[in-house]
Design a protein that fits this description.
The protein is an alpha+beta fold. 38% of the residues lie in helices and 29% in strands. The structure holds arabino-flavin-adenine dinucleotide (FAS) and P-hydroxybenzoic acid.
Amino acid sequence: MRTQVLIIGGGPSGLLLGQHLSNAGIETIVLERKTKDYVLGRIRAGVLEIGTVSQLRDVGAGARMDAEGMVHDGAVISYGDAQIRIDFAAHADAAVMIYGQTEMTKDLYDTREQTGGAIIYDVDGVEIHDAKTSAPYVTYQKDGTEHRIDCDYIAGCDGFHGVSRQTIPMDVRKEYEKVYPFGWLGILSETPPVHHELIYASSDIGFGLCSMRNENLSRYYIQCSIDDHPDNWSDGAFWDALKRRLPQEHADVLITGPSIEKSIAPLRSFVCEPMQWGRLFLCGDAAHIVPPTGAKGLNTAASDVFYLADALRRLYRDGDKTGVETYSERALSRVWKAERFSWWMTSLLHQFPDQTGFDHRMQQAEVAFLQSNVNAQKVLAQNYVGLPY
Ligand code: FAS
Ligand code: PHB
């Protein structure tokens, strides 16, 4: 087999890139390790930046998002009973879209199938060959048979545990990492959200987040210890812990119910430089990870895709190589700003096991400054809705 751009990974990065390129008449094949149902069974992000929303509309996969998504022009940061509403409209002249990553990925799958895009599921042993030459290729196994796909370029959209980043030699790539000493225990419940906007709640006993998927499907998180396990938490214990992290007015009206999903996500900041090696380009979690506190994981994957799709369109249409030659530099410039914001939000809102009394006072001073300074709120709003591409 042969194609122009071989995409490894059928998550949001791979599918969004694939749709951009297919719509531009560039041949692509997506290789996905799992089944479609498995990919769509993962509960992940919930907040889409303006840039991600625009891209979904541009590739023709935004109709259900526009019909079912919820536009939010603010969010609440709380500390104990003190609340600060961050007004996205006033400070950033923008809003975010509340629409689950699962739904976005489903829409991208549907669009790719409707437009005849090739996806090969259930592949094993994907290997990247000759990425530093003008004739790269990929091999993989499926149904016990070895296959080969020759291509012009390879997009590594295979997430943090994929094969693409590992293909870049250790003496070429430099990795930056920070592992946080806690995790997020998340649940999904078929209950109405406690508030019409998200609440990022900090308290002396830890962080809590109130999010949602629709008017009767809520997504809640609490900070938990790094070695915790979902089985350690009954629903009742989760709800009690969340209420103790919320301002009293919200804790009093929180509608609880049985969890239909319960999982723990570890928190880390991670960046691999460079994000390209020869004709291999990394996108999304294959290249970087953020703690979900700033809702930047999925959205930074989307900005990588924007830059790579733009570069490959210019190359195939005009023979202009500048985009593919500067992709890593261009993508990393925005990646590091998202890393900074996600680290700042995480440092501000969580209780760190080893923090000192001074650290705690610094957090309280940061919150007090945010509460009293409109420019501080403007900076948070502009980062949250998404910095320009
Ligand atoms: P993904 O990991 O989503 O997709 C990679 C795809 O590649 C997968 O389908 C995988 O099966 C496939 N793959 C892997 N190796 C392969 C191989 N060798 N061959 C073929 N295919 C291969 N972000 C937020 O903004 N907010 C959140 O609340 C949030 N919560 C998260 C919770 C968890 C548990 C995790 C893991 C991540 C969370 N994220 C969150 C971040 C997440 O949304 C990612 O940023 C997003 O999925 C990135 O998309 P991709 O880059 O496509 O990577
Ligand atoms: C979610 O709804 O899953 C969500 C929202 C905002 C975040 C993280 C997760 O910062």
